[in-house]
Amino acid sequence: MVNFMMKNRKFFLGSVLVACALSVAAYASEIHLEPSSLQPSKIVTIHLSDYRAGLRQLAADGHDVAGVDPGKGTVDVVVHGDELALLKSLDLGHIVKTKDIDPEVGPDQRYTTYAELTSILRNYETRFPNLIRIESIGKSNEGRDIWAVKISDNVATDEDEPAIFFNAMHHAREVMTTEVAIDMIDQLTSKYRSDAGVTSWVDGVEIWVVPMVNPDGNNKVWTSNSMWRKNTREGYGVDINRNYPYAWGSCGGSSGSTYSDPYRGPSAASEPETQAVMGLVSRVQPVISVSYHSYSEIVIYPYGCDGERADAREVVEGLGQQLAATLIKDAGSGTYEAGTSWELLYAVDGGDIDWYHNAHGVLPYVIEVNSGSQGFQPPYSWRQSTVERMRPGWALMLDRLGQSGVRGSVTVNGQRAVKGIVTVTPLSQALEDSHTYPLKSDGTFHVILNPGMYRVSFSDQDMVVSQDVTIGGELLELALGVKP
Asked: Of the residues 161, 271, 297, 368, which is catalytic?
C-alpha cells in the first residue's frame, strides 16, 4: 500500500469512505455532509451468533457489508465514527478484530488506473490486431469511455459462434477484479497458437471482456476516497449493481437513500454504465457470463430475492457448483462456496446477473475474489497468485461452451430466421421442466443442458417445428427447418 502522494494525486482528507448505514446517511443529510466524510473509519470483523439473520439485519439497516466468510460465520463491516458503538449495540455476535482505515492511504500504486487500462488495451490491440478489438460501449456519467474487448480469430467479423461475457469492477474499490480481466486478455492473446486450449477457445468462441464497468468510481478511488463503491452521479453515486431492471427495488435488496452504499438509483437502468452493459449483452447475447467482484471467496448465481430460483436450475446451479470447486482459496487449500446471494449473504435486487438470466437466458455468475485477509485492496504482491487462481474458473466456462448441450440454427422457408423462441422440453421426469430461450439475431441458438433426452422446438407465431434429441457429453449441432 502506498500514500496517494506517491502518485502525485491530491487526496481530500475530508472524504474517506463510501456511504454506509442508513442512520449515518440520515444524519449526514441533516447537516449536509456526505457520510464518507465522517471519521475515524474501520473494518470490523464480527462472528455472528446467527449468520443469516445477522447478515440480513446488517443489510436491512444499510450497513456497508464489505465481505463474508460463510465457513467461519463472520462478516466484515465498514464503520465510521460513532457507528461502531451503534454496531456493538445490535448485539449480533462478538467482534473478532478491527482494522483502521487510513484516509491518506490508497491502493498499491501498481494497480491499474483507468488511464493505464486504456493504454494497456490499445497496446494489446496493436500487438494482436487479428485477435483483439476494443470499442467503447458507452460513456460514464463523467464522460469516460467504457471499454469492451472482443477476442476472436476473426475479430472484425460477427460469426455464428457462441459468445461469452466477462466483466469486472462494477464496484470501484474492488481493484483486483480489473487485474483478473487484464490477465485473461493477456492469456487469450499471447498464448494463441502455442496453447491448444486457448487456440480452440479463440477460434470457436466470441469472447467479450469489460475490464472496468465503473471508470468514474475508479478515478475517485485514486483521487479522493479509497473505499468508494458506487459511480459518481451528483456526488452521492449509484450502486451500478443494484440498478439493473429485473426485480429493481423489489425485495429489500437495495436502498432508496442516496447516500447509502447500495443506493439503487432514481429508476431502473438510470445509469449510463448500466445501459452500456445492457446494450452489449443485448447485442452479443452471450451463453455464459462471469462478473468479478471482491471479496469473500464465493460464487453467486441467480436469483437475488428470497426463495427465487433460476430457470433451468439444475444447469445453472450445477455449473455454479463446478465453478466454485475450481477456485482455490487464498489460504492455499479449500475451494469457494456457491449459492444464491440470499443463501450466502442477503437479498439483492437490481443485480446484473439476474437481468442477464431473465432477459436473455444467460447462465451468469458472480465470483467474489480474495478472502477477508486480503480485502478490497491487498498488497500488489497478491496479484499474481490471485489471477492464477482465477484461470481455472474462466477456462471451465470457455470449455463448457463445447460440452453437453445443443447448438443450432433455424431456417424458415429457406431463409435464416431472426425472430422466434426455442423451447427445450425434457423427455425424462428425472430432468427439470421446459424452458424457453430467445433466438439470437443471427438465427442461432445455444443451450447448455445436462445429458438426457429432450424435445427442441422452434416457434414463431403459427409456425412450430420440433425434433427429439439425445444429449451426451458433447455439444450437439442441430438444424431446424420451418415451412409456413
From this structure: 368
